[in-house]
């Protein structure tokens, strides 16, 4: 075992103690056999075999069927790449194919590389090339578009396409030696492998890529233990039961969708409702038809559903769990507490702090929740790296039993104590609640004081007069930089003065943006994680300022910022 692996085992020995064991015991999870993806699915099959595991607008797959098809897919992968530890790239939308491929790869002893199915060809090929995967699994909808850029990658020698009818089995495409062309039934009805590979909790399970909001996406390698623990934690925190029908619009290829949606549903016996792509009218019809009880969805997509002309004609009375800031709460008269949020990041397989879904709102107190058992947080001075007292803002550093194994193609980022220093600012109170205060690399220096764009955005979260907000920094001749708020108004009556006046009731004067630019939502662009593209928002803001400001010195700086 390498020095790196030995060090990680020592850290896990510390973190895999009482807190995690208490949760697992309460849920009836055997840590010896059910902290791997195959073990998690086998546990659910034993309890919920005939229950629907995942439902799409056109299909329904039971837990037993998922297990059978995953085993059959493992057999196929073993034929193509028989060695343990191989990497299998998945370029798949939300749906049963993703689940079958993920669990089939794990059963075959392979690690899955989870690719962004919404990405561009250049983005996908860049991640694929870095991953070391030699086999790519995709669908008929995506595969024809892939062939052009797959030809350019020297590492891929096998392509498994579910439903692709364009090429015959075994035909060579460029350098690709094997092209396995199978329709859905042929893939899923193969004979299972006689036995699954021996898989341990510390074995590589999945390589995920961050959303790349600060540059090139980082390749984050996670173990079976991390994914399974977070899945069990989420099933408990979200209070999921076998009676729940959970609709999730979170992509499974990111850690939140993988654990909070897919893993939590599968580990609790709930039915997961999956849509490959979002469309407001189709989503509403699906919610009504399937009597969804809980919904995990970005708030701006909820706005699209509430605003749809057919919204008022539908019976969504079964839906009782939505995001605490979702417009669906008021539109449907939902009073139940659910989904209070939390703090997480890809490097921790998402979850660091949260509250149980049914927590009393007074206990939330504006925080991101208590640090979950099995995770640890320290807050340090960004300059000295020394731990700061409770209540003082600093850099959030995390470690725990779900911490990534490593970045796949970068040096180990951990400090001497095994903590991962994030790029986020926050504070801890004496009750163990974590408060997020913005990005360490986004705080600006304006007129000699530090101002956080995220603090401004958080102040406006949930305010009914604005639908979307993005605070961006632009150069200023006197103050160095100033914040400008780019916002989507709820209606035509909102103006800059109203927004500024509201912010002055919540923030110190120096934190209030210098200008407010109101725009139609159609002018904005969004990242694959549904966040406002800040670079594009900044360009919109600068163009608006160039049209309305008269200070020649400021106009010169703004013009230069566009070059």
Automatic annotation (TrEMBL):
Pfam annotation, one family:
AMP-binding
Source organism per entry reads Acrocarpospora pleiomorpha
What InterPro entries does the database record attribute to this sequence?
AMP-bd_C, AMP-bd_C_sf, AMP-binding_CS, AMP-dep_synth/lig_dom, ANL_N_sf
- What are the protein's GO molecular function terms? medium-chain fatty acid-CoA ligase activity
Task: Please state every residue range assigned to the domain named AMP-dependent synthetase/ligase.
Answer: 41-407
Reading the lineage from the top rank, the first entry is: Bacteria
Which keywords, in A-to-Z order, does the entry hold?
A: Ligase
Q: Provide the protein name.
A: AMP-dependent synthetase
Q: Which residues form a coiled coil?
A: none
Report the record's Gene Ontology biological process terms: fatty acid metabolic process
Which family does the record claim for this protein?
Belongs to the ATP-dependent AMP-binding enzyme family.
Domain AMP-binding enzyme C-terminal as annotated: residue spans:
455-521
């Amino acid at each position: 075992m390498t020095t790196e692996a030995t060090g990680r085992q020592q850290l896990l020995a510390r973190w895999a103690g009482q807190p995690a064991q208490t949760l697992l015991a309460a849920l009836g999870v055997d840590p010896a056999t059910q902290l791997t993806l195959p073990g998690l699915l086998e546990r659910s099959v034993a309890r919920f075999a005939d229950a629907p595991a995942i439902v799409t607008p056109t299909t329904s797959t039971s837990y037993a069927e998922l297990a059978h098809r995953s085993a059959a897919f493992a057999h196929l992968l073993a034929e193509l790449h028989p060695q343990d530890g191989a990497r299998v790239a998945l370029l798949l939308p939300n749906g049963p194919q993703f689940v079958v491929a993920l669990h089939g790869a794990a059963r075959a002893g392979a690690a899955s590389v989870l690719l962004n199915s919404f990405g561009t060809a250049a983005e996908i090929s860049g991640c694929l090339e870095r991953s070391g995967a030699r086999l790519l699994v995709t669908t008929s909808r995506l595969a024809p578009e892939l062939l052009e850029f797959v030809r350019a990658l020297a590492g891929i020698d096998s392509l498994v396409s579910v439903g692709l009818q364009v090429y015959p089995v075994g035909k060579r495409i460029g350098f690709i030696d094997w092209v396995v062309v199978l329709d859905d039934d042929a893939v899923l009805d193969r004979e299972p492998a006689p036995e699954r590979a021996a898989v341990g909790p510390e074995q590589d399970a999945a390589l995920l890529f961050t959303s790349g909001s600060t540059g090139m996406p980082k390749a984050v390698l996670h173990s079976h233990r991390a994914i399974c623990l977070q899945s069990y934690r989420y099933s408990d925190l979200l209070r999921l039961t076998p009676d729940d029908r959970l609709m999730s619009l979170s992509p499974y290829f990111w850690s939140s969708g993988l654990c909070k949606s897919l893993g939590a549903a599968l580990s609790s016996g709930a039915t997961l409702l999956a849509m490959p792509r979002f469309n407001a009218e189709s989503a509403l019809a699906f919610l009504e038809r399937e009597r969804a009880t809980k919904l995990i969805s970005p708030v701006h997509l909820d706005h699209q559903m509430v605003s749809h002309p057919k919204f008022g004609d539908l019976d969504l009375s079964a839906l009782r769990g939505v995001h605490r800031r979702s417009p669906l709460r008021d539109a449907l008269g939902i009073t139940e507490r659910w989904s209070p949020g939390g703090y997480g990041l890809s490097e921790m397989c998402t979850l660091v702090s949260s509250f149980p879904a049914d927590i009393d709102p007074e206990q939330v107190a504006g925080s991101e929740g208590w640090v979950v058992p099995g995770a640890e947080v320290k807050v340090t001075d960004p300059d000295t790296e020394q731990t700061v007292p409770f209540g003082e803002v600093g850099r959030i550093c995390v470690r725990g039993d779900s911490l990534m194994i490593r970045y796949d193609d970068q040096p180990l980022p951990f400090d001497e104590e095994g903590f991962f220093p994030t790029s986020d600012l926050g504070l801890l109170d004496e009750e163990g609640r974590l408060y997020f205060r913005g990005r360490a690399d986004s705080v600006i220096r304006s007129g000699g004081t530090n101002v956080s764009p995220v603090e401004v955005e958080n102040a406006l979260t949930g305010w009914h007069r604005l639908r979307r907000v993005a605070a961006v920094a632009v150069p200023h001749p006197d103050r160095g930089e100033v914040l400008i708020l780019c916002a989507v108004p709820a209606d035509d009556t909102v103006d800059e003065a109203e927004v500024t006046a509201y912010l002055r009731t919540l923030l110190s004067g120096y934190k209030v943006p210098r200008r407010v630019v109101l725009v139609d939502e159609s002018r904005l662009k969004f990242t694959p994680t549904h966040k406002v593209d800040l670079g594009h928002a900044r360009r919109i803001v600068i163009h608006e300022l160039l049209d309305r400001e008269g200070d020649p010195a400021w106009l010169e700086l703004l013009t230069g910022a566009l070059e």
